Amino acid sequence: MFDVNVGMTMRLLDWAAQAAVKHFCLLSSGAVYEPFAAALREDAGLAPPGFLGASKFASEVVAKPFSSIFSLSILRLFFPYGPGQRDRLIPQLVRRIQDGGAIQLSGGTEGIRLAPTYIDDIVEVVLASIASSWTDTLNVAASETLSIRQISNTIGQQLGIEPKFEFVNPNTPSVDIVPDLSRLASRLDLRRFVQFKEGIQRTISASPVGASDHRLAESQHR
After folding, report:
1. CB–CB of 6/53 below 8 Å?
2. Are strands 23-29 and 117-118 parallel, antiparallel or unpaired?
3. Statement: residue 108 has pLDDT above 90
4. What predicted TM-score, i.e. pTM, was given to this entire model?
5. Which CATH number fits domain 80-116+144-178+190-222: 3.40.1400.10, 3.30.1380.10, 3.30.70.260, 3.90.25.10?
């Protein structure tokens, strides 16, 4: 994780400086805001306790001195998803529902609230940051906020499968991982971002496994 997030970032920055690159777009992560106890604004003080958040934050710190050589934008991504993704939250939820396993909801009946962001929208932000030479740190997420329960129910509707839920840690306060998007909204119309219902439909339809399971579910309900 250190080699990729910090070491490789440093090598790419150094190469960009030597190659006279005009703009560098660094993809960071919303994990830098851990433990998500305060407002998730770009000017917030950061001290992430987890190694993912710490290494992503370190990559941002390493990149900042290069802003005197080329324009630098830092994009903090929140829960990207889309066709072909593996071993992340959304594909894990899809697989769990397909397999009939229970989705764990912590801290209440809804679970964590977050902003899943479709990959095409993230690409659009990256391209815009390069084309316009942004020189800022921005949160990148859809403006639509959903709980784990709402996400799971939307996935279940697409698959034709009723999700199962398991409630854990009921006394633990619920967590909201919802970034402030004021900076991003000043540059792009967030209403253009793909809504989760459409995004998960595209994601499942593009997956050979998801598509076949969806057709099987449809045939069983006829």
Report:
1. no
2. unpaired
3. no
4. 0.89
5. 3.90.25.10
